[in-house]
Amino acid sequence: MYKIAVLPGDGIGPEIIPQAIKVLKAITKKYGVRFEFQEGLVGGAAIDAYGTALPEETLKLCQESQAILLGAVGGPKWDSLPPPQRPETAALLALRKGLGLYANIRPAYLFPALADSSPLKKEVVEGTDLLILRELTGGLYFGEKKRERTATGEVAWDTLIYTSEEIERILRLGFELARERRRKLTSVDKANVLITSRLWRETAEKLAQEYPDVELEHMYVDNCAMQLIRRPRQFDVLVMENTFGDILSDLASVLSGSIGMLPSASIGGKTALYEPVHGSAPDIAGQKKANPLATILSAALMLRISFKMEQAARDIENAVNRVLEQGYRTLDILSEGTTLVNTEEMGDLVRQAVEEG
Ligand SMILES: NC(=O)c1ccc[n+]([C@@H]2O[C@H](COP(=O)([O-])OP(=O)(O)OC[C@H]3O[C@@H](n4cnc5c(N)ncnc54)[C@H](O)[C@@H]3O)[C@@H](O)[C@H]2O)c1
Ligand SMILES: CC(C)[C@H](C(=O)O)[C@@H](O)C(=O)O
Ligand SMILES: [Mg+2]
Question: Where do the Isopropylmalate dehydrogenase-like domain residues begin and end (predicted)?
Answer without folding.
Answer: 3-350
